[in-house]
Write a structure and sequence with these properties.
Neuraminidase, four-stranded antiparallel sheet, 0% helix, 182 residues, 15 strands, mainly beta
């Protein structure tokens, strides 16, 4: 769930089985600043274990969910109407089977960052950044190829600076900070 500066909120949800695994459709419902909930809107993919959603100050919401091995994203307009889904990361190996949850963060002005994990030989963490009004960057690998990450956290500041933190398999805390270039 996320709440915007104007009081609007968005909750994402879906049915899960007895083990907590998603086994059905994925929805988002929006609450107006006055407290009225809108109808549920089906979303692409699955919320996995927890889903990822955030909102800017104007009420534009970004959510992400898995559709098979693709990480899908979807923006809403400030009025709550959803835009077309898009692929954030395609054909990932074992994207949600090894415990590294994906993250979505949006600052007040609308800059966004998404981070996720995937596993090839070793688990890795990747990210994409979207400055407000511009296109998404290409995916960037954050972690070293031979040191698997655990417990990913992502944050974005008001001017678009981002930070990523994770714990390595050796128990070391790693932090990576990035600044916008434009």
């Amino acid at each position: 769930m996320t709440v915007g500066a104007g009081g609007a909120a968005v909750a994402t949800y879906g049915h899960v089985d007895g083990d907590g695994r998603p086994d059905g459709r994925y929805f988002a419902s929006r609450m107006s600043p006055s407290g009225t909930w809108g109808r549920p809107v089906r979303q692409p993919g699955s919320p996995g274990r927890g889903g990822a959603v955030d909102m800017d100050a104007r009420g534009r919401t970004l959510l992400a969910g898995w559709d098979g091995d693709d990480l899908m994203g979807r923006w809403s307009r400030p009025n709550g109407r959803w835009r077309k889904p898009f692929v954030l990361a395609a054909e990932l190996s074992k994207p949600d089977r090894w415990g590294l949850a994906w993250q979505v963060q949006v600052n007040r002005r609308g800059d966004a960052v998404v981070a996720w994990g995937a596993k090839d030989r070793v688990a890795q963490t990747w990210a994409r950044y979207k400055p407000v009004g511009q296109a998404w960057t290409q995916p960037v690998r954050l972690t070293q190829a031979d040191i698997p990450p655990h417990l990913l956290r992502t944050a974005i500041g008001e001017c678009g600076h981002v930070a990523f933190a994770w714990v390595t398999g050796h128990g070391e805390l790693q932090v990576l900070r990035a600044s916008p270039t434009s």
